[in-house]
Structure to design on (308 residues):
């Protein structure tokens, strides 16, 4: 059940999309919001204080406006430090169910360490929604990208989030066809190739059907698609064809440098999506140790905020 949403803003147009989407979700779920702005603390003290004061004033007015016009309770918080770490710390302290942020413009250094959105997603033990689309209404439909073998719990965790209010959910599995290239380049006849693809699709459909049934999502459409290029691009193409307003993908909880390695399916989708993407991390036994994956720097600054 979605009760508490944390939305990060840098006051840019991209962040405005995240704020508006978070507001729509909060209003639909009767959830509360925490509005977080991060100020880079690695600068002269007077400059940091000035920016903190200015940001606090903007967030306070934003929270007042949300309460007056959208009937959404919002608490402002300004913190200092590294953006991704501070966002994760704030989510940890407040016990947010969902983190919402906008896509960040890629800079040269992001080629090596990722944007704030990518770093937050890679390290978060909580679901993260990247609001890339223009938020004008609740989600009409969601494409749930599943790998039945690797992500048996993803659909169930999406159910716990009430599918973010999407009226229609399409469960999609992009399946591998490892022998296709060899068959197409070799002497195989087209009939044999067709039989191979049909068999792979049949197996993928059976696996997806079992996964959806076990998840408890209820009535859900299913679609299986052979991978063309990368899995991430195949998912994006499927979302384009289905005209879904939300893509849902899963990611494993990695540690250390592996969190920043570009190339995972979730990172591929997030980097190229022009619609909203919800990333749900897998939570294995003992995953409680992953909660609090920021650096703890903002915990003291967030004292007094409603938690849980």
């Amino acid at each position: 059940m979605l009760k508490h949403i944390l939305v990060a803003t840098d006051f840019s147009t991209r962040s405005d999309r995240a704020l508006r989407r978070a507001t729509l979700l909060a209003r639909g779920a009767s959830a509360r919001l925490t509005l977080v702005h991060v100020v880079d603390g690695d600068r002269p003290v007077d400059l940091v204080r000035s920016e903190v004061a200015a940001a606090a004033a903007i967030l306070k007015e934003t929270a007042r406006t949300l309460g007056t016009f959208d009937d959404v309770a919002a608490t402002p918080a300004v913190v200092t430090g590294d953006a991704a770490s501070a966002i994760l710390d704030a989510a940890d302290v407040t016990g947010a169910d969902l983190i919402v942020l906008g896509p960040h413009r890629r800079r040269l250094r992001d080629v090596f360490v990722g944007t704030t959105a990518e770093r937050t997603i890679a390290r978060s033990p909580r679901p993260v929604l990247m609001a890339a689309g223009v938020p004008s209404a609740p989600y009409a439909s969601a494409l749930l990208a599943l790998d039945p073998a690797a992500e048996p719990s993803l659909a169930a965790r999406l159910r716990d989030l009430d599918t973010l209010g999407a009226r229609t959910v399409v469960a999609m599995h992009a399946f591998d066809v490892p022998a296709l290239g060899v068959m197409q380049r070799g002497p195989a006849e087209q009939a044999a190739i067709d039989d191979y693809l049909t068999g792979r699709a049949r197996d993928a459909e059976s696996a997806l059907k079992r996964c959806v049934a076990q998840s408890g999502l209820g009535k859900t459409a299913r679609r299986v698609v052979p991978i063309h290029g990368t899995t991430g691009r195949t998912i994006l193409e499927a979302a384009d064809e289905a005209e879904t307003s939300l893509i849902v993908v899963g990611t494993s909880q990695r540690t250390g440098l592996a969190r920043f390695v570009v190339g995972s399916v979730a990172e591929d989708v997030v980097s190229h999506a022009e619609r909203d993407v919800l990333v749900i991390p897998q939570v294995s036994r003992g995953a409680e140790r992953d909660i609090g994956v920021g650096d703890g720097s903002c915990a003291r600054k967030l004292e007094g905020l409603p938690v849980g």
Observations:
- The chain has a mean pLDDT of 83.
- The chain is about 40% helix and 20% strand.
- The beta strands are 4-8, 32-39, 74-80, 98-101, 128-130, 141-145, 168-175, 221-226, 246-251, 276-281.
- Residues 199 and 247 are 27 Å apart (CA to CA).
